Amino acid sequence: MDYQTYIFVLMQLCLLLTIIIASLRLTLPRTVKGTGTWALACLAFIFTAVTLLSLPDVSPVLLLLFANTAYLATVILQVHAIRRHLLHRFPSWQQCVSQIMTSFIPVAALTLVFPNQPARVAMLMILTIGYYAVAVRCLLADGRARKALGGRIILAAFIGAIGIATVRMWAELISLLTPAGNVADTSWFREPYIMAFSGSVVCSSLGFMLLATDKLRIMYERLAVHDPLTGLLSRRGLVEMSEFELLRQQQHGQVIAAVICRIEHFDELGFRYGNGAAEAALVTLAQTIRQHTHETDLAGRYGHCELIMLFPAGLDDAQYKIQQIQTDIQNIWIEARALRFQFAISTAMEALQPGVQVFEHVHQRLLARLQPEPVHENAVLVSIKANGEADTVRVEQVLRD
């Protein structure tokens, strides 16, 4: 090639490198600034550069081995990234490097078994089709990713890559049977093939970016309406969902039962056994509530140790479920600081009238029923030591100590 062709190809490579790196830097949240993204970009660039700048009659075996390794490693890293993304685990740079090293083994084996270049490239395309088929199957199996825009873009890019690899495979196989020469080495075939492969990398990177953005949006929405400690609805989530339930109540004439539940002597539990023990009691109560509530019921954290539940089925259903929750709580023991302790809960319930605001009703009536009882000599915290010895301590003694 003359110097003008080299300059033109160099400009193409610089533009292609810019596009690939810019797209792959936005691939996955935990690999945005990691080695994995740069490895994928550099491998795609190396494969493109070696293929465009090398001539069939002067390309050494080592150069082809390097280009094929870069190609297969790029494919494996793409498949590895999508599988990790769907499994909610992101690849570290050590895993990316191990994938690159692993891709060298089949390429080296193909080079030794198939000295003929067309046969070697055809087998490489078969491996590529297999890897992309695994990624497509993972995408189709994940309903959320399949319906998302990013998942559709990745799916289209991977299917396009399968088509590109299939065309390249048949071109190499046909060249083995025809004495006219290798069609895949001609410029009119090689350059569109390289650009199509690079385009699939860019499109898949864009799809990864959209998938990651969608996942972050879902995570932030969940954190906004869910309490991070208990996993129940937060105060904001309760406001939004209760408005919807009350509106449906007005339309269908249903009676919604509101229940407030509080852990008795919550501060004393934390004072004697530590904040972790008090939080464990709150989490245990939340888990018990989830076990005895349906999808149509609402449960969320209202305050420090208060939980609110809304039962669209009415007071009878609410009373039955609250009795089950109280029975389970009486049989649960929590371990903390080599001690096993129990906790008690107090509840209050009332039917919500149409048009009432849930939190105003809680403040005015339900919460008033749960005012802290004065500490008296019969108020106790019951626990059992690790050796089985009873350890019953009065609340007034805990406060005094």
Automatic annotation (TrEMBL):
Could you list this entry's UniProt keywords, alphabetically sorted. Membrane, Transmembrane, Transmembrane helix
Q: Which superkingdom, per the lineage?
A: Bacteria
InterPro entries per record: Diguanylate_Cyclase, GGDEF_dom, Nucleotide_cyclase, Rev_trsase/Diguanyl_cyclase
Keyword Coiled coil tagged: no
Among the GO molecular function terms of this UniProt record, one is: diguanylate cyclase activity
Q: Mind listing the GO biological process terms from this record?
A: cell adhesion involved in single-species biofilm formation; negative regulation of bacterial-type flagellum-dependent cell motility
Residues of the GGDEF domain: 213-383
Question: EC number(s) of the enzyme?
Answer: 2.7.7.65
Gene Ontology cellular component annotations, sorted alphabetically: plasma membrane
Enumerate the catalysed reactions.
Answer: 2 GTP = 3',3'-c-di-GMP + 2 diphosphate
Q: What is the official name of this protein in its record?
A: diguanylate cyclase
Q: What is the organism field in this record?
A: Proteobacteria bacterium 228
